[in-house]
User: Fold this.
Amino acid sequence: MVDQREDQEIQREKGEATRRRKWEMRQERKRLQAQKQAEEEKRKRRQDEKFMREALRQARKAAALGDVPIGCVIVCRDKIIARGYNRRNADKTVLSHAEIISIKKACRVIGDWRLEECTMYVTLEPCPMCAGAIVQARIPRVVIGSKNPKAGCAGSVLDLFHEKGFNHQVELETGVLEQDCTELLQEFFRELRQKRT
Assistant:
């Protein structure tokens, strides 16, 4: 009887040890998974910032022409395939937005109107025209620097990227180099007001 109790106690302890070991292994797998995910998010953020810097460079070209400094790049497979900047005043047409110019160039490079493997980086939240063009071009992901509280259609005024009635939804990342993008716009309008006075 005593031997049977001892055997049962030994078996119970072995079972607890096995359960504890398996639990520790699950916890370690979860920790490693979370660490890998965090590293991937950091890598993605660094890449987003790299491409947004190029969009900012494009925006400065618009400012040099006297246009509102908005820049855009389109990336496919980690390579910039199109660049554009706001040229409304220079071209004297409302269609010369950075996003529209970039989409046209990217379509020529890809050879199709569908830009399904591309990511767009733009310094200011798109207007209704540009947001519609992004949805129509099937661009799956858009990265935005500054929000546009007066005309933004990626969530500020409207959200055309997540309209349930559309056949395409856009993954959205906001706030990448937001301060740099916002300061560029603020400086442009500050200088514009000073010239008018």
User: Anything to note?
Assistant: The longest strand covers residues 79-85.
